[in-house]
Specification:
Blueprint: E1 7-10, E2 18-21, H1 28-33, E3 45-51, E4 58-64, E5 70-75, E6 82-90, E7 93-101
Antiparallel strand pairs: 1-2, 3-4, 5-6, 6-7
Length: about 100
């Protein structure tokens, strides 16, 4: 496999692999991530503040609201203790956040 930022590998049965320049100067994976704001009118990642149940420190993190309610375990940035974070949300909006000992 060939790795070049502006070329796409092309394989032919009768000829050895060769590179053809791409129309775009960046990898195609990035094209998927560049979604116009008209398609997504509200942000899916919402910044939230939570308080560590171990040390009491206020921590700023992001909640992904694209998939609805979820829970995750994250470590506190200050004391490194695990905490269970439960997020209740709608797309683009966090309705409730519950933090407990993990």
């Amino acid at each position: 496999m060939y790795f070049m930022s502006s070329c796409i590998p092309v394989k032919s049965v009768s000829n050895p692999p060769r590179l053809i320049p791409s129309k775009f100067p960046f990898p195609k994976i990035l094209l998927i991530l560049l979604i116009p704001s008209k398609i997504l009118p509200f942000p899916m990642l919402v910044e939230i503040q939570i308080q560590c149940p171990h040390c009491g420190e206020i921590i700023v993190t992001t909640a992904d609201t694209s998939q609805g309610d979820y829970s995750t375990i994250e470590d506190c940035e200050v004391c490194c203790s695990p905490m269970n974070i439960e997020v209740i949300c709608e797309p683009g909006e966090v309705e409730d956040v519950r933090v407990s000992l993990a």
